[in-house]
Amino acid sequence: MSNINLALALAAVPGIPAHVMRSLAKEGVSTMADVVWHLPSRHEDRRRMDVMAFQASPTPSCHHVIVTKCANKFFGRGKGTFEAVVQQAGGMLGQQLTLRWWNMPWLSKSLAEGMELIIYGVIKDFKGRLSIVHPEYEIIKGGGDDEAATIHTGRITPIYRLRGGITQKALRVAAWHVFQHLPPDFIDDLLPKPSGQGEFAGMTRAKALREVHFAGSNEALAVARRYLALEEFYGYQLRVAQRRRRMLDAGGRSQKGTGELLRDFLADLPFQLTEAQQRCLDEIHRDMASAAPMNRLLHGDVGSGKTVVAFAAMLRAIESGAQAVMMAPTQILAEQHARSAAKWLEPLGLSVRLLTGQTRLAGLADQPSLLKSDIVIGTHALLFDKELISNAGLIVIDEQHKFGVAQRAKLIRKSATPDVLVMTATPIPRTLTLTVYGDLDVSTIDQRPRDGVKIVTKVRGRSKQAEAAKFLRDQIEEGRQGYIVYPLIEESEKVDAGAAVKGHAEWSKRLAPLEVGLLHGKLSPEEKEHVMKRFRDGKFDALVSTTVIEVGIDVPNATVMLIHDAGRFGLAQLHQLRGRIGRGAHTSYCVLFIDDKDDENLQRLAIMEQTSDGFQIAEEDLKRRGPGDVLGHAQSGEAPLLFGELLADTRLVRLARQLADKTLEDDPTLSRPALAAFRDPSGTSDKAQAMMQ
Length: 693
Ligand code: ADP
Ligand code: MG
Hints:
Layout: H1 18-26, H2 32-36, E1 42-45, E2 61-73, E3 81-88, E4 97-101, E5 116-121, E6 124-126, E7 129-133, E8 136-141, E9 156-159, H3 168-181, H4 205-213, H5 218-250, H6 260-268, H7 275-289, E10 295-300, H8 306-319, E11 323-328, H9 331-344, E12 352-354, H10 357-363, H11 367-372, E13 375-379, H12 386-391, E14 392-397, H13 405-415, E15 419-424, H14 430-436, E16 441-445, E17 455-461, H15 465-477, E18 481-485, H16 500-511, E19 516-519, H17 525-536, E20 542-545, E21 558-563, H18 571-578, E22 588-594, H19 599-604, H20 606-610, H21 614-625, H22 627-632, H23 650-666, H24 683-692
Parallel strand pairs: 4-7, 10-15, 10-16, 11-13, 11-14, 12-13, 14-15, 17-22, 18-20, 18-21, 19-20, 21-22
Antiparallel strand pairs: 1-9, 2-3, 2-5, 3-4, 5-8, 6-7
Helix pairs in contact: 1-3, 4-5, 5-23, 5-24, 6-8, 7-8
Residues 306-307, 398-399, 552 line the site of magnesium ion.
């Protein structure tokens, strides 16, 4: 156990110049801990000294040089530019390189002729004269402190994210002296000894921190970063695991059902459940039968048939004498579900209530009748209806694809402990489900009901719109319908994006005399529903829309989708949009328009042409954007992860989870002082609350 107090002020550390301490203090970096935990965002390998001649190159290089001349120069109105002419130390005498610092005349006080420097920067060639503007430099001889090891150059150099007036050099100097000062075991380990983990054998928290700042080798740096990432994921998993245990402790209903309703329902369906649907349903029913509250995510690509599975789950709740509640993110979707429920569930003798915006406003009065219906369907606003929620045996939350899953689930937990089934069509890469949905069990429908229906996707330059229009017209003449999607509602001066409103006028003309509808987010819910109804009923041949159609809408007769400015969309979102077609018996066509010479997007979107497997697309997205980005949304509310990019490393995440589970088994209250920060503060009170209901 170390007895070093990292909370001590930097003044306790020998060697940090006063001006460095002052500049750090201004930005609140005043203790050793502040410096130790200000981790580098990346590193530059400045080990290799270039002993060859100076040479212009787009990549920076590192040189050991002697200053042969230096002076302030004044050009025009500038504040004065400091220039130093240098030569390679110990070789290639005669070849000159000019170092130039704009507006930094005070450098004449620190640099002088005869000094030896290590410099690092990009050498440019201007008409045969070589120069570096604002090189990183370090005085190694002639500066009065000749014995000092290099801090900024000649090593794998840490690069920090800066804030305020702090400079790289100031932070690096401070970090250097702090680590010189600290003993090898300056901090206790957070992780339990990861015994048998070959990679981390002998690694400690203190060593990892030291390596991450001033690495001895690239290999050691990589291990240290992974060790710290493991620590971070471990902390995250500790929280998740505690939440999970708390929920299980809370106690729920055991809903075993009689099987009668389900049998009739399945017998009346015009199709058989796929194997994947059946497996997911079994998992759900198993959870519902158990006394612990279910908290499960049903995860399946667009069109994988989640709704039927949800209905089957709801029947089990009703068989068990409870009510089932289903929520959708939009009114349109809620009405769509209510229609399906009316078609499939009312024949079983069940009462289905749709709670629309209006009935809700007037609805408080008929709460009793609401509580008597077998099934209540509405928007997510239902979540806030405490009585309804605590009365329900099962709550289904549909298309919760904006990631706030854990928060939603928590909200429900606050008031009661019904079984909860969350459904999402966002194909979260398998590597990430563990992290994003750490406290949910995950069922994945990884199979599509009708493999026969194909969606042909093409990426095209916008100049091909006329051809696409002709194609759309042909399809409409064969009795089909189409979507035309725009990324924005109104033309904005700043954003050069096609606008739905303007697009509607254009397409109405282009497709005349066919009927073209317009749907966007600024319409009232009633207007939106009216437009959707007309489209569904075939009154509109085509529908110009913004991304409001992104989620869940099911119009099987629509077989064409033209997406404008597709370059503005993420892959996952395009996949969602595309899921609106290919839902009937007919081959469907999706055209992604990009700017004519936009090679970057041509490349990025190529995957959309190659596959309609949402998981493959999600993996591709992950590769391009990095999991930190993908997870960015998921984590709203939680601090962003420092090592987010390592989240795709399933092995590391799994290891973190194992270690967290082990820790909680050995020490359920996290009594070890190092774990204090991860103790679940709400644990006891929530349990008490749950018991009172
Ligand atoms: P999503 O998972 O995107 O919500 P839906 O539940 O809307 O998918 O289902 C898409 C379509 O597939 C619906 O029209 C539904 O009736 C149909 N469907 C669902 N399961 C099957 C199945 N096993 N066989 C054939 N069609 C199915
Ligand atoms: Mg759906």
